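Progress against Task 2.4 (sequence-to-structure conversion) is shown through the following example record, which the project officer requested during the mid-term review.
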Amino acid sequence: MAMNDAIRPGKFVELTYQVTDRKSGHVLTRVEFPLGYVHGHNEILAPSVHAELEGRTAGEVIEVEIDGQQIFGPRDESLVFTDDIENVPEEYRQVGTSILMENDRGQTRSFLVTHLDDETLTVDGNNPLSGRVVVFKLEVLSVRDATGEEIRAGGAVHAGAAVDPSRLRSV
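Structure tokens generated for the chain above:
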């Protein structure tokens, strides 16, 4: 197996990444365990990130800036709700908890608990990246030919991804 395999469609890629807020420098999310995917088959990150990964090789570290405003649009304040804390089940009463809610048309959307005090709790249905510029810092760990099974599955054939990819792409 050649060590200098470059990332291109049909390659199995393992990487880790972290996302930081450009303005504050805060780390918003990071993966604890390497994430594996088949390039060109299951794009687990934003398209602009995949475009930057193309042609890279193991050992490279790249930074991609993403304008959340562009991908997810501006913040929509109508998706922010505050309710009496009594109306909210106990297990959701923690900042950072994600709550899946369904509207009357049967579409689900994830809301994040962003604030709570003794009387009220606030949830926000905006994507956490909307309205902010973030930097993806990715480290390519390995690149190899994907197996037929991996290509069919569209990614690593093992359980337990460390991050919920749906949080990183628009709904």
